[in-house]
Amino acid sequence: MAQTQGAFLTSVRGIGIVLAGGVTAEIGNPYEQKPLNNLVSYSGIIPRVVQTGGPQGETYTGSVAKRSNRILKDYVVQSASHLGLHGPDDLMADYKRRDGAGQHADFGIARRYLRMAMCLIRTSQTYLPRHLRQPGVKLQERAGYYLMTWPYLRDKWQKLGALEAAFAKDRPLGQWRNMIQDLYEIKLKL
Asked: Is the per-residue pLDDT at 47 higher than 80?
């Protein structure tokens, strides 16, 4: 896991190494994946919609497809549940909103998680809240966020006994750590 881009999924609060590893393994090479809608359908977390009679015809929303990657479905639904309980504030709020509205919150957040996971893996970045991704954000704000979340990310890998392996200079998280330290002039201690 530490050798792949999937290691960046562990930067999301609420997602552990096992869930990140499972999702990464089932997605496969993110650069050879079909569009996100196909991945969501492949994971079996989106209901089938049938419409007859043209654009003005009545639509019917059925159940989710039985033919899907059940392993990926299990991992993303578990991840969504963890995000709803322990994740970033915006995802927890969205989970509660969906659950309160009678929607299937696990499937809705699972779709968001897959979109976020593909982005993190493809761009080799850790999770940043929406307000810190905006163009006009000061470097000090982002640096403060990285300093605040660094112990949490470090502890995830330390509990597994893979701290040195995950943050080695030739591994994705190690390269990210070196880049952040140079760019923001901060020290992320191991």
From this structure: no
Backbone phi, then psi, for 50, in 5-degree steps?
Answer: -120, 130
Task: Say what the pTM is.
Answer: 0.88
Closest CA to 144 of 186, 173, 183, 177: 186
Nearest Cα to 14, choosing from 104, 102, 116, 99? Answer: 116
Q: How far apart are CA 17 and CA 93, in angstroms?
A: 23
Buried b (16+ CB within 10 A) or exposed e, 115-148: ebbbebbeeebbbbeeeeeeeeeeeeebbebbee
Whether residue 156 contacts residue 1, with contact meaning beta carbons closer than 8 Å, is answered with no
Tokens representing 99? 């659950």
Per the CB < 8 A criterion, the answer to whether 50 and 23 are in contact is: no
